[in-house]
Design goal:
- The structure is a single chain.
- With about 750 residues, the protein is an all-alpha fold.
- Among the domains are: about 260-485, no CATH class; about 530-685, Four Helix Bundle (Hemerythrin (Met), subunit A) (Up-down Bundle); about 685-735.
- It has 31 helices and two strands.
- The protein has a two-stranded antiparallel sheet with strand order 1-2.
- Helix 3 (about 45-70) packs antiparallel against helix 11 and helix 5 runs antiparallel to helix 6 (about 125-155).
Length: about 750
């Protein structure tokens, strides 16, 4: 299964030199030209960086899943979901069209729903999958509206063309609505506070899915969108304020809540929330240093967090324990896993010579250059850095040191397919830390150019001389070790904060879902009452209100389609029909009501005959006679007539009936007054005898010109008759009482 993502990595490497030199490679295939929707692909520095992360880490995850789920009967299904998600993510980062971007965006939500709910026998997995789908799906719908507004402002749906219209877009009065809607999609996908709660709950997914979706790929889709939109929407006060506020808050909330957790994957999940907030905040700052720090942190986070998730899966797989308090002393039994865990934990804490140290230095440096906001920014990022190291030590070091609990029994190292992927990720973090030049000019600098629009000088390395950022880094290292050693006190101190955050986010989601289900039940009881009269009442009332509004607001005036005054016999016919209709309403027996309705039907037949349609009149007479006979036969077996409705209900029904009849009459008159195209009646009459050899135009239309339609109608009636016969005659025998 890893051959496919490996092939994608090899394919992408062919274009690495082109994107490194600043080129933008494009491919466009028309899809829906009338709506300006194209399958447009673009490859630049930013796309290349994300695509390599998606496919490269995806290959390692596929290998890991083969060992982790080796005995699972649905391994092939998991691989299908995983590769489908991978392709959807590649579509997100490679597409250049706003509509196709949204389609791939929603495909990532759907495939992640399948992955999170993979163990669908568990209620926890089903609930977490639905929660993730609802939160990210609603955000995606808001984003779609924002993308359409953006396309309307910029005059195109191509992202590469919108970049050239960035100034025009930012000056538009629709800029703020478009920005808010697009940010709703990005914030929900990238788990920004207060939408972050779905990400820790999504840890119900199997560990390979958690490592891939929630460390390296899916949750970074929102970060990618913000980075891609920076040349178009960035540089304004709104952009800076919203991204800095939400990103900074998410960064702190994730770290403060995560340090209290004891379950492996929940610690990593909340630290991922914090990392996503850091990326959003840096993109919001928009300075050269902040963008550089964002790209460095993006790569570092994907490497060490992916490795730690896989390590957590190995510990769970080999020991059956998910809580860090239940394990210890595993270094001797899991030596390769311990090595990967230690390297990844040190990178997460920003310890040299790991790549995480370079990313942390850049983060601190960007915070120091925030002007008026430097002090709160430095406090926030240093506090987060301290807690990062504490969480990294809790997950990657603590379980492998000390004495092994006796209840663990014998523990053996996992299959190579499980320990190799995290070791490769952690080793890559070490390699990039020692030799940062390997990716500085080939991946990082081109990605930064795609975000800010120009290339600026960078110099990555472990040593940049003595600086205040280095002092802050040393301070955070020391305090991170202190937090790890005093973890119980830290957990007790942060407990009230954890409860407040849960009450504000996760608990509110539960309340919203409870109220939504209660509203759904109330609405179902109201609309699906089981009574035909209620269904008809709702249908008629809705039709009256909506159609009348449309007629009044749009139709305008119309005239009667005839000018001749009615003659005496026509007036008599109409009067008889109306009198029979009113009489049917006030009848106190079913037989009397059927008889008066029969008079209405025969009156309509006479109208047909009067206006020169004897065939229709004969058809109407036959149908009306048959209908009356059938009604009489059916009503013969029913109980006596009883009034079940009150006078108020009957008055309401009378009003709605009269209004509906008046509306239908008005629509018929209006339709007769409207002619969108020349009438075809003369053409039908002209062709009736020469081509179909029939002088009755109506019959020719039914039998020849529209013979297939007539045959279909006869077929439907025949099937309905068979159904009625089956219901009446083929009754099951009564079961004998036991």
């Amino acid at each position: 299964m890893a051959l496919m993502p490996i092939s994608i990595v090899l394919l992408l490497s062919n274009f690495l030199s082109s994107t490194a030199s600043g080129q933008m490679l494009q491919l466009s295939i028309p899809w829906v030209p009338s709506l300006e929707i194209e399958i447009s692909l673009v490859m630049d520095g930013l796309s290349m960086l994300f695509a390599l992360l998606i496919s490269g880490i995806g290959a390692l995850i596929a290998i890991y899943a083969g060992g982790y789920l080796a005995d699972h009967p649905q391994l092939n299904r998991f691989n299908l979901y995983l590769l489908s998600f991978m392709l959807a993510m590649l579509g997100v980062v490679l597409t250049d069209n706003l509509i196709t971007l949204f389609i791939f965006w929603e495909l990532t939500s759907i495939t992640s729903y399948f992955l999170i709910g993979f163990d669908h026998e568990k209620e926890e997995a089903r609930k977490a999958a639905l929660q993730a789908l609802l939160v990210t799906g609603l955000g995606g719908l808001a984003m779609l509206a924002g993308l359409l507004i953006l396309g309307e402002i910029g005059g195109t749906l191509e992202i590469s063309e919108l970049v050239a219209n960035g100034v025009l877009i930012r000056r538009s009065p629709l800029y703020v609505p478009a920005l808010l809607l697009i940010l709703a999609g990005a914030f929900t996908k990238s788990a920004q506070f207060p939408f972050h709660f779905w990400l820790p709950n999504a840890m119900a997914a199997p560990t390979p899915a958690s490592a891939y979706l929630h460390a390296a790929t899916m949750v970074k889709a929102g970060v990618y969108l913000l980075a891609r939109m920076n040349p178009i929407l960035g540089g304004t006060t709104w952009w800076f304020a919203l991204l800095s506020l939400f990103g900074g808050t998410t960064m702190l909330v994730g770290a403060l809540v995560g340090i209290r957790q004891t379950v492996f994957k929940r610690i990593l999940a909340f630290s991922t929330v914090s990392g996503l907030g850091t990326l959003v905040m840096l993109i919001g700052l928009g300075t050269d240093q902040a963008v550089q720090a964002a790209m460095l942190f993006l790569v570092a986070h994907a490497l060490y967090k992916g490795a730690l998730f896989l390590v957590a899966g190995i510990v769970d797989h080999q020991t059956g324990k998910k809580d860090i308090l239940q394990v210890g002393g595993l270094a001797g039994a899991l030596p390769m896993t311990a090595m990967a865990a230690g390297l990844a934990a040190l990178s997460m804490g920003g310890i040299p010579p790991l790549f995480g140290f370079i990313a942390k230095e850049a983060l601190y440096e960007s915070a120091l250059h925030m002007g008026y906001f430097a002090i709160p920014a430095v406090v926030a990022v240093v506090t987060t850095g301290i807690l990062y190291l504490g969480m990294g030590l809790l997950v990657g070091v603590g379980p492998f040191l000390g004495a092994r609990p006796s209840e663990l029994g014998r523990v053996r190292e996992a299959h190579w397919s499980m320990w190799m992927p995290p070791l490769v990720l952690a080793g890559t973090s070490l390699l990039f830390g020692v030799r940062s030049g390997l990716i500085e000019h080939t991946l990082l600098s081109p990605a930064m150019k795609s975000i800010v629009g120009y290339r600026f000088p960078t110099h990555l390395g472990l040593w940049h001389g003595f600086s205040f950022a280095l002092v802050l880094s040393l301070f955070s290292m020391a305090m991170g070790v202190y937090v790890y050693l005093r973890i119980e006190d830290i957990r007790r101190a942060f407990r009230p904060f954890d409860e407040i955050v849960h009450e504000f986010t996760g608990a509110n989601y539960d309340r919203c879902m409870t109220n939504l289900m209660a509203f759904a039940r109330w609405q179902t009881d109201l609309l699906q009452s089981g009574y035909l009269k209620n269904y008809l009442l709702i249908i008629f009332a809705s039709t009256i209100s909506l159609t009348t509004y449309t007629l009044v607001s749009r139709a305008g005036s119309f005239s009667l389609p005839f000018d001749l005054p009615p003659v005496l016999h026509e007036v008599i016919l109409v009067a008889v029909i109306l009198a029979a209709t009113v009489s049917a309403v006030f009848q106190k027996s079913r037989l009397g009501a059927i008889a008066t309705l029969g008079i209405v039907g025969y009156g309509v037949a006479l109208i047909f005959a009067t206006f020169g349609a004897p065939d229709l009149a004969m058809t109407q007479l036959l149908i009306e006679t048959l209908t009356v006979i059938l009604f009489v036969l059916v009503l013969y077996s029913l109980p006596g007539f009883t009034r079940l409705s009150s006078k108020g209900h009957r008055f309401r029904d009378a009003v709605i009936s009269i209004m509906f009849g008046a509306l239908m009459t008005t629509l018929v008159i209006a339709a007769l007054d409207v002619q969108f195209s020349p009438s075809i009646s003369a053409e039908m009459a002209r062709k009736s005898y020469p081509e179909a050899h029939g002088r009755n135009v109506v019959n020719v239309i039914l039998v020849d010109f529209r013979g297939i339609d007539t045959m279909g109608e006869i077929t439907v009636l025949s099937l309905a008759a068979l159904g009625v016969f089956a219901l009446m005659k083929l009754r099951p025998e009564k079961e004998e009482e036991v």
